[in-house]
DNA sequence: AGCCGACAGATCGTATATCATTTCAGATAT
DNA sequence: ATATCTGAAATGATATACGATCTGTCGGCT
């Protein structure tokens, strides 16, 4: 009894690989290859790719094929701007519903983040950052907004280049802002104040990233060669 | 030379019917029937439905089939809350980019809205309302946020019951708020003030709708009978 | 050498066919 | 009369097959 349809299976298969970076942006998704790898026909794979396309994780061009979405800088800006908006709102909506338990868990995660700064672990820092906000959003009463947050995060993950998500000088400030947001929530601040604080938290990170980028004079995003990231059979 | 793939054709076909109400919420989308009607096979139709599913316009259950999405009251609340958020942001982002031409066009539409109130034309009013905001969003620099606005509108359209989108006593206020928003933009107000004004504009409408609903004691949303809304061949 | 067109391989797009699951009507038993 | 069973019809899910389109390469021409 397969509890999961083959199209769902294909969806998870591809999605997993995009998330963990095995399929980098620009990697070409060939229907036939994926179908063979999963031992299914191309029809369910097409469906899976269509769904990923609707989620903006892959682009699909007629008679050409699909590839993991490439993020351009301007695209990145728009995504982060939207993310700031929905994260701010999600935080404000959740705030009045958070229990002391939530808050203490969030503080604990934040402490761990602080510790990852001593050892230099950008990847772990980023992970914990998502965990931190996930705790805050656990009680979010509006699933739509939560869904938008997740979409934003997924798009962010398409940037494997860590310089897009971690700026050394910025990390400490970020941890401090987390604490301040928790303070606001604990103090029962106005929802709008919480919303704007959370929003600024994201936009400040964005600004830091952009400053860091231009400072380090990174050349334009290059398209990775699909072949070079082929999965070894 | 068909510039449009059959799956896109099927998508537009269904989408059109959902938008204009021929397929009411709850209407069952039978793959085979739609395929025959379009004289294509079921494969492209499935793809089209998957895409609509990703847009939350239809629900698709394994081995059971697809139907036009049903909106529950709580769902409606979440949608409107999200819409208030993204419309507010879209308005604020657009504001500094609007030319006098945009503003005068918006005012003209708003005047027409005022006129529809004399004659009782709720449907026309709702149409013009979308037009009004569309003009404001023409220059929106963030396509993601604009996309979210459109998704919100589409979901709103699933509520064919006009009492969900038009409250007689509220309409006049709404027109007044439009003018006030335009005034703010024209005066070069702070983006945040514009954002909050636009947000309140939507939430106020929502509140009015809910008050109107409970006042008129509408029974719980009922699931329309798919058969009763069959298209006459 | 560089440009252009034809060919071949790869890949996508869709129709058709078959299998699986659900649904529902009608029969049967309690 | 109600509940349950059963089997056929409807519908969805997937595999396979074939045609269409694209892409890149090879050879000829200027």
TrEMBL record, chains A, B:
Domain annotation HTH gntR-type: ranges:
4-71
The record ties this protein, via Pfam families, to: FCD, GntR
Asked whether the keyword Cell inner membrane is assigned, the reply is: no
The record's listing under InterPro entries reads: GntR_C, TF_FadR/GntR_C, Tscrpt_reg_HTH_GntR, WH-like_DNA-bd_sf, WH_DNA-bd_sf
What UniProt keywords apply to this chain's record, in alphabetical order? DNA-binding, Transcription, Transcription regulation
The keyword Transcription belongs to this UniProt entry's keyword annotation: yes
Spell out the protein name for this chain: GntR family transcriptional regulator
Q: Which organism is it from?
A: Agromyces humatus
């Amino acid at each position: 009894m397969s509890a999961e349809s083959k199209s769902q299976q294909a969806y998870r298969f591809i999605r997993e690989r995009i998330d963990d970076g095995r399929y980098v942006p620009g990697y070409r998704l060939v229907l036939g290859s994926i179908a063979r790898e999963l031992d299914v026909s191309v029809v369910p794979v097409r469906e899976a790719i269509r769904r990923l396309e609707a989620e903006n994780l892959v682009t699909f061009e007629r008679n050409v094929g699909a590839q993991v979405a490439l993020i351009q800088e301007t695209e990145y800006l728009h995504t982060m701007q939207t993310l700031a908006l929905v994260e701010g709102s999600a935080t404000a909506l959740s705030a009045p519903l958070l229990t002391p338990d939530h808050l203490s868990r969030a503080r604990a995660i934040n402490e761990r983040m602080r510790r990852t700064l001593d050892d230099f672990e950008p990847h772990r820092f980023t992970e914990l950052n998502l965990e931190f906000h996930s705790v805050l959003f656990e009680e979010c009463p509006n699933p739509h907004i939560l869904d938008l947050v997740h979409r934003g995060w997924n798009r962010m993950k398409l940037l494997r280049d860590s310089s897009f998500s971690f700026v050394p000088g910025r990390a400490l400030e970020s941890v401090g802002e987390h604490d301040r947001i928790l303070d606001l929530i604990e103090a029962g601040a106005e929802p709008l104040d919480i919303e704007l604080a959370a929003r600024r938290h994201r936009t400040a990170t964005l600004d830091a990233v952009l400053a860091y980028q231009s400072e380090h004079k990174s050349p334009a995003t290059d398209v990775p060669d699909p072949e070079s990231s082929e999965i070894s059979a």
